Amino acid sequence: MRIVAALGGNALLRRGERLDHDVQRAHLAQAARALGPLAEGNELVITHGNGPQIGMLALQTSTASGPYPLDVLGAETEGMIGYLLEQELGNVIGSERVVTVLTQVIVAVDDPAFRAPAKPIGPVYGEGEAHRLARERGWNIARDGAKWRRVVASPRPCNIVELNTIRVLIDAGVIVICAGGGGVPVVRELNRLRGVEAVVDKDLTAALLARDIGADALLLLTDVDAVYANFGKADARALRHVTPAEAETLALPAGSMRPKVAAAAWFATQTGHYACIGALEHAADVLHGRGGTSVARQ
């Protein structure tokens, strides 16, 4: 099978943990052990999130002579996380089989997301501190559970610049880590590429990537074992299978499961293949229908 596995933010950091190198490397070592079995006899492509990391870098550069733009910071996180994951996965299956590709993703310059920032990045804050930082730094902020976070534009991915290179590597038997953090957002103007101030949703980019490389399955791996109806309530129940049409009717949190279900439904509709959402530590079971939630037409 040709598989795209998209790692959620829990692959690197869990809520409340410090953004320390050792913490992130330990989580990536666990992720590598979970992904290793998927590489046996399959073609595997891996993507990952970068919300906490790009937020950290944005905070660090805000104290310098001038803050770096988000596209440059996105490229930095792709390199940093890709290096750590490539090394840890190489330690499991052999380093000569794994490579990281710095990936640019084309977005539309007139995407309405630029007028309505909604993608959370960086750490969580109390309400008072969040509003103070918004005033001081010109941030947009929004609720994230009981806390607040900075939010930035998240335009829809249209095309992957390095797609042909990724295909060549897959055909050569290489496990590719690419499109980290949704890829570096760029626009094309007069046959030139230019980075833009945004962060692309990693799940939508993973779905686009999976479609365009002809993947048989898309795995959206997180720290929850399945998609739940009535999540957080007494009558919550795990959904083992939903169709794309059913997915549209689910009432899901905007900042967590809703983007994953939307991306899974889009991939299933576009390709006729299936997408799965489930726990990273049980990735192989999720792929084979022994856990998680599958999203498919039938």
What keywords describe this structure?
298 residues; alpha/beta; Carbamate kinase; eight-stranded mixed β-sheet; four-stranded mixed β-sheet; 9 helices; globular
Describe this structure in words.
This protein is globular. Helix 6 (202-212) runs parallel beside helix 8 (257-271). By secondary structure, the chain is α/β, with parallel strands linked by helices. Helix 1 links the parallel strand 1 and strand 2. The mean pLDDT is 90. The chain has nine helices and 17 strands. It starts with a strand and ends with a strand. Helix content is 36%, strand content 27%. The longest helix is centred in the N-terminal third of the chain and has 24 residues, at 70-93. It has two domains: 2-110 and 155-295, Carbamate kinase (3-Layer(aba) Sandwich), CATH 3.40.1160; 117-152, no CATH class. The strands form four sheets. It has an eight-stranded mixed beta sheet with strand order 3-9-2-1-12-16-17-15, with helices on both faces.
Report the span from N to C terminus.
Answer: 19 Å
CA radius of gyration is 18 Å
SS content category: alpha/beta
Cross-sheet strand order for the largest sheet:
3-9-2-1-12-16-17-15
With helices defined by DSSP (H or I, 4 residues minimum), what is the helix count? 9
Low-confidence stretches: none
Classify the helix fraction into a percent range.
25-40%
Say what the CATH topology of the largest domain is: Carbamate kinase
Number of domains: 2
CATH superfamily of the largest domain: Acetylglutamate kinase-like
General shape? globular
